[in-house]
């Protein structure tokens, strides 16, 4: 068990630096992380994000990919712990006014083209999220969960677009974590969801979750307050669970026969 916990800790700690590698690790170690009290796998689906506090902002459609851990401290209990990492989980919004105080400064050489122009800004905030929820699983397969979610912002992008004298102007402001002058590098809030685990599907689940960010996305010197929100529609797929169950069954059979 200690070896399995070490592998879990290693994956969680290195997820920020090796986001894309985690999908490969999940495929490699999947069946080694499956026990009666621990289920590991991939999750993926759709994320509708928006930013609260910005008048006129509209939702942004994103795909989501990550991995999860379902922990069962007591096998007979309906209460479980659900966690993991959303590796690809952009948040943000579109249709943000050009004069919103939270927009990063535009380069002086192109600024005049956007002054008094008709246009908008789309914000794309690339973030790794780690949810930690308590889940109640009913015998029918329906489950409910709630808890918290923390995120690490590693890159942001603000896409300006404006129509001027029959021309469409574009300007793209990209900022990485180490030199981001506009956005906080952490995000956190509460989340909850409802889902269903079909019988006989070896752990596959489908569900809907909602995340309510409680941390202002802007740094203290920005005269604006805004908060991330996301609606997730996800499916989860355990990795190596069937193989792990077959191995446990063989061991139990051998133990029962004394071999």
Question: What does this molecule look like?
Answer:
The chain has 259 residues and is α+β, with helices and mostly antiparallel strands. It has a single domain (2-257), classed as Porin (Beta Barrel), CATH 2.40.160. Helices cover 19% and strands 49% of the residues. It has helices spanning 2-14, 19-29, 108-114, 241-257, and strands spanning 38-52, 60-71, 79-88, 91-96, 118-137, 142-164, 167-176, 186-196, 205-213, 227-238. It has an eight-stranded antiparallel beta barrel with strand order 1-2-3-5-6-8-9-10. A hairpin with a 4-residue loop joins strand 5 and strand 6. The radius of gyration is 22 Å and the shape is elongated. The two termini are 23 Å apart. The model is unreliable at 1-22 (pLDDT under 50).
Structural class: alpha+beta
CATH class: Mainly Beta
CATH fold-level assignment: Porin
Oligomeric state of the chains in view: single chain
The tally of structural domains comes to 1
Beta-strand segment tally: 10
């Amino acid at each position: 068990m200690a070896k399995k916990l070490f592998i879990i800790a290693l994956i969680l700690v290195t997820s920020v630096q090796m986001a894309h590698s985690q999908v490969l690790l999940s495929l490699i170690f999947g069946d080694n992380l499956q026990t009666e009290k621990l289920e590991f796998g991939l999750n993926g689906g759709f994320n509708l994000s928006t930013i609260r506090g910005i008048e006129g902002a509209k939702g942004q459609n994103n795909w989501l990919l990550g991995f999860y851990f379902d922990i069962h401290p007591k096998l007979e209990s309906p209460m479980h712990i659900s966690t993991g990492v959303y590796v690809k989980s952009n948040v943000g919004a579109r249709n943000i006014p050009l004069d919103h105080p939270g927009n990063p400064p535009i380069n002086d050489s192109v600024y005049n083209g956007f002054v008094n122009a008709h246009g908008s800004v789309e914000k794309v905030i690339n973030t790794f999220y780690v949810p930690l929820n308590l889940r109640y699983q009913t015998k029918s397969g329906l489950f409910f969960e709630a808890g918290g979610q923390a995120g690490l912002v590693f890159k942001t992008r603000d896409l300006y677009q404006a129509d001027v004298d029959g021309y469409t102007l574009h300007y793209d402001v990209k900022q990485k974590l180490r030199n981001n002058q506009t956005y906080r590098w952490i995000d956190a809030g509460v989340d909850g969801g409802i889902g269903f685990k079909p019988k006989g599907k070896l752990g596959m689940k489908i569900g809907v979750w909602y995340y309510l960010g409680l941390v202002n996305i802007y740094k203290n010197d920005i005269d604006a307050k805004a908060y991330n929100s996301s609606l997730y529609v996800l499916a989860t797929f355990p990795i190596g669970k069937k193989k792990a169950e077959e191995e446990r069954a063989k061991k139990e059979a051998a133990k029962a026969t004394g071999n």
